[in-house]
Design a protein that fits this description.
Two copies of one chain form a homodimer. Chain A has two domains: about 15-250, Aspartate Aminotransferase, domain 2 (3-Layer(aba) Sandwich), CATH 3.40.640.10; about 255-354, Aspartate Aminotransferase, domain 1. The two termini of chain A are about 25 Å apart. In chain A, strand 6 and strand 7 (about 150-155) form a beta hairpin. Chain A contains nine helices and 14 strands. Chain A has about 350 residues and is an alpha/beta fold. The mean pLDDT of chain A is about 95.
């Protein structure tokens, strides 16, 4: 039976990427060696790293605009720490849109004053705040562009004169977007880019060198840029598989085309959530994420029935996060419209059965 | 042609491990999903992580002795930082045996007084210092048990009453060893354990909680222990492949048996280095590493000839580090005695040709 993988992350990747990654672990490009046995200083791997950085900048339309792409380790959680370590000298603003923003705020507080500019906590983070004032003397403003757990996503980026930093772990490369509004953004690979184990950081170089504290080498963006993401041994497999996905995005026509497909998938599923009387959506309508669709059963007693239906139809990874309960359908780039339709079928089956 | 992979790291892994890792990227245990598409909170992955930790403790004979095993990200370089962040309150001692020790010292200096207890720098790190005094008031003493670049290795661990910390990146699981002498040791996976992208840390829990500073969550061993190495998304592929190697070690009879095989390989190669008038060893005899055999040509003008011979015989990754020049044969656990013999043949071929 085909498995429809709605997992929030690590999550579905294109089948072609999976096959090529598996092949490269066996043998990289007829080299007689496995991808994971070669030196990271070999020509083969340096070329992999360079192409991955180049494609990441190309897809975000930031080539030749003063930005650098880095493939680091430690996930977005390490970036919560690194962006504060490198950029927070006096005070920073954070918009709190959920669990990950809250964690980012916690780490930043070790390094300076942190102002919570806005928050949707009072409503269990079911919307993206709007219409707040942003002080002009912040070292930076930090956003989480998509909130995996709550299923919310920024549609517009707030206007500000201060540097803009964003955690884009769960929606990078998923839609057409003016990435040049951001001075620094980062994303754990394990949603739309690759396997867990590497984190893409794209940073405007002019942003660096402004804090007075001494930064440990591995956490220092300047050191990482100088080393071309190879200050120390990079996570070879995760970088290579990310490159395969970045190539796949290219082959599919780039993020604009992918973004349109993602809109279609999300619209179909939200339409069903709104139409089907058995379900209700969690996120407020104007903040709905195109990546993570959160919804609950109107009658929680039907949980076992619906879970069994999903299971019988090969639908996997649909359980909502404990903060929200119910269901979360993660419909990342690699998930097909057919999988969304399979889920819609299950939802309609429940309605008919009732 | 079979490639004989003498790369210093990332480096050779058992063929069986490579094949199984490749297979799991395609599909994990008939689950219908790739290893890299499943949630790290799934039963399947939690069991992988638990077994990997358990086997790491078993192979080091540290089960039920107050130690925890962690699989983190960031390589040994991140551990240079973490061990100082977590343990250095007042002053620490470091023995400087090469490039990696020097880097560890540099990072530790951000957090307290660092005393270089001994160093072999004056002789380009070609030996492991002995017979030094260790102050009794150190927060810890830090060693690098094997020095990949220079080809030196501790045979005996200095006696001390202070906590002992070690970077074992290039010789963990390679020999019978009293690991209980150490309070904390760590190893980047990419030599004897797996692909680049995860770092094993084994730590005595009683060592923690003694510094006064606030530690960022991701760098805090206590937080990482509490999260079972899953404070944030772990590097799933690297952990799984490390588990495969830990199982392979078990199947081969454990590290005692593997250590004997490693001795045999190293002895054969050092014997040839000593016997063959075309070559001279770099590391001093009593400090010679069983993992990285460093040697130079007596007549550097034969470099191109010897390189071509190696190349013609499928010998790969033999180039020495620029700090030493010449050659470095990394003969990790997975390298067969046949590969060592192939290299010896090449060395003898050069002698005959002359």
């Amino acid at each position: 039976m085909k498995i429809h993988n709605f997992s929030a992350g690590p999550s579905i990747l294109p089948k072609d990427v999976i096959d090529k990654a598996s092949g490269a672990v066996k043998e990289l490009d007829n080299s007689g060696l496995s991808l994971i046995e070669i030196s990271h200083r070999s020509k083969a791997f340096i070329s992999i790293m360079e192409e991955a950085c180049e494609l990441a900048l190309k897809h975000t339309n930031l080539n030749n605009k003063g930005y650098k792409a880095l493939f680091l380790q430690g996930g977005a959680s390490q970036q919560f720490l690194m962006c504060a370590y490198n950029l927070l000298d006096n005070k920073a603003g954070y918009v709190n849109t959920g669990t990950w923003s809250t964690k980012a705020i916690k780490e930043a507080k070790l390094f300076g004053d942190v102002i919570e500019i806005a928050s949707s906590k009072e409503n269990n983070f079911n919307y993206i705040p709007k219409g707040y004032d942003i002080p002009s003397d912040l070292d930076y403003l930090h956003l989480t562009t998509n909130n995996t757990i709550f299923g919310t996503q920024y549609k517009e980026i707030p206007k500000t004169t201060v540097p803009l930093v964003a955690d884009m772990s769960s929606d990078i490369f998923s839609r057409k977007f003016d990435y040049s509004k951001f001075d620094l953004f980062y994303a754990g690979a394990q949603k739309n880019m690759g396997p867990a184990g590497t984190t893409l950081v794209i940073i405007k170089e002019a942003l660096l060198g402004k804090v007075s504290r001494r930064i440990p080498s591995i956490l220092d963006y300047t050191v990482q840029i100088k080393g071309g993401s190879m200050f120390n041994t990079p996570p070879v497999f995760a970088v290579y598989t990310s490159l395969l996905t970045l190539r796949w995005i290219e082959e599919k026509g780039g993020i604009e085309v992918i973004g349109e497909k993602n809109s279609l998938k999300a619209n179909r599923l939200y339409n069903e959530v709104d139409r089907n009387p058995m379900f209700k959506g969690f996120a407020s309508e104007e903040s709905r994420s195109q990546m993570n669709v959160t919804f609950n059963l109107v009658d929680a007693e039907l949980t076992d029935t619906f879970d069994a239906m999903c299971n019988d139809n090969g639908i996997s990874g649909l359980k909502g996060h404990r903060s929200v309960g119910g269901y979360r359908a993660s419909i990342y780039n690699a998930l097909s419209i057919e999988s969304v339709e399979k889920l819609i079928n299950c939802m309609q089956l429940l309605e008919q059965k009732k």
